[in-house]
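Researcher: If only I could read backbone structure tokens as easily as an amino acid sequence. Walk me, if you will, through where the backbone shape changes along the chain. I have put the entry right below:
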Amino acid sequence: MTSTAPSVPDLTDEALATVTAELAETAAEYDDSGAIPVRGLEVAHRAGLLTATVGRQFGGAGAGPRETARILTALGEGDPSVALIVANTLMAHAAQAANAHWPKALYDEVLRRPGPAPINAIRAEPELGAPARGGLPKTTVRRTGAGWVLNGHKSYATGGTALAYHLVWVVTDEPGASRVGHVIVAGDLPGITWIDTWDHLGLRASNTHDVIYDGVELPEDAFVEIPRGADGVYRDPAATTGPGSFGHPALYIGVARAARQAFGAFTHSRVPAALGRPIATTERIQSVAGEIDLQIAQAETLLHGALLRIEAGDESVVPQLSVIKVAIARAVVAAVQTAVAALGNPALSRRNSLERHLRDVLCVRVHPPQEDTALLAAGRRVLGL
């Protein structure tokens, strides 16, 4: 147990809806500026959502995959940039709850922090790309008398300077066989430099910039080795789809929900002169609204249905989790695109939140395993190859 337990979050629908509404108030502003969404992170922190997956053995609520999915859907509906930063943090705490690997004093320090303490596993590199597709990092840690020295260049490090801790994927520079793992790095250590490279279509406030580590000194217990597989090969943990990885698609269900709400609001306010009444009263728009709802219902049912089957002990669904994520991604993109297509030019205006929701939902496709990889693996499994 830690000396200061995380606050217990209220995960009722009403409480989560309140958080959604608070985030939505500033989402457009942060999307426009690209600044770190500090107010949104503070809202999530006050509600206890940044630490909801802290294990019960550490005094936390120990939220499981379905509760986590509900949290991230609510945050994604309000501001998906905040949701992405929170998702990475919740996954880090869930991993610690399942297999404690942080030095005790350091993890106690994380939980004692008075404000938001985002955490992210930083893996991608400019040359390597996404490690889920294979390959080893060039970022290294070298042994010293006191511990390790970290050097390297990472890409797509969501959270930017808001990160309290980085979990950096590295290879050791040691005599003999090198090892692969993560080092736990406090975000305020000397030798860390951020490069503002994030100029993206969507999730613009997520601050997914490049970061350089130049001679960052770390204690000996900062390194956590990733064991080789049975075939002797290292594999990035993010390449394996498990129940805990459903947080990312969950947040985009939130984006689709926000698009559904925006579509409804616009169709009630739009009164063409030739029609003389809101377009929401036409069968055409009502059918489109039904199609949007169908796609969201499909995504939600796939997400929670898969997780419920696992909770019930049905392991037969596990090999299909990657393609279920693909199906969820297709559904949420279809929901938002359907809304935009039905409204035409007004939905593509920066004055209309649907334009932002469309940009944000397209980012669902970049999370590992990506569609081509998931379908190839599923096809080989089905064909017994």
